[in-house]
Amino acid sequence: MSAEKALIVMHMGGNFVKNPYLQYVGGDEVGWSIERDLLSYFQLIDLVHKAGYRVVMWFSYLVLGDSLKDGPIVCFDDASFRTMIEHSKKGLLHVYVEHKVDIPHFDDEDQISEDRNIMCESRVGGTCEDKGGGLTAV
């Protein structure tokens, strides 16, 4: 019996811009078929490294049928990655890599959470909220 596969298109090396809708501009797209049981944060980091990129701030993804206008869902903890893995059962997942560039380090978890909300809201041009599976536009 073969393991179930997750079909993923990773968007790496670009950045999000809003003009007038959210877009991921530049970078590379690489497609992978990964055993769903092996899909994890560490597996995604390994794939990013194999594609030649090093530093990742976080991952975000689109649910099948959504577009960047709908706002990507940000993965930042175990629960949000488990939700992403569940969404992978519905079909092709587009995963966007946000690379760390001159972002200050904070030891304060509240400050980190606030910064994630601010970054999410600036990318989607509206309000973001954690719906138990990662930050998403509301």
Can you summarize this structure?
It is built from 3 helices and 9 strands; from the N terminus they run E-E-E-E-H-E-E-H-E-H-E-E.
Question: Can you walk through the features of this model?
Answer:
The relative contact order is 0.21. The chain is built from 3 helices and 9 strands. The protein has helices at residues 41-50, 78-88, 109-124, and strands at 5-12, 15-18, 22-25, 28-35, 58-62, 73-75, 93-98, 128-130, 135-137. The protein has 138 residues and is of the alpha+beta class. β2 and β3 (22-25) form a beta hairpin. The chain has one domain (5-100, 109-137): Roll (Ubiquitin-like (UB roll)), CATH 3.10.20. The strands form 3 sheets. Strands 4-1-7-5-6 form a 5-stranded mixed sheet, covered by helices on one side. A two-stranded antiparallel sheet has the order 2-3. Strands 8-9 form a two-stranded antiparallel ribbon.
Q: What brief labels describe this structure?
A:
single chain, 138 residues, alpha+beta, Ubiquitin-like (UB roll), 5-stranded mixed β-sheet, two-stranded antiparallel ribbon
Number of discrete helical segments: 3
Structural domains: how many: 1
Query: Termini, distance in Å?
Result: 41 Å
Low-confidence stretches: 102-108
InterPro entries: PB1-like_dom_pln
Domain PB1-like: 5-99
Protein name: PB1-like domain-containing protein
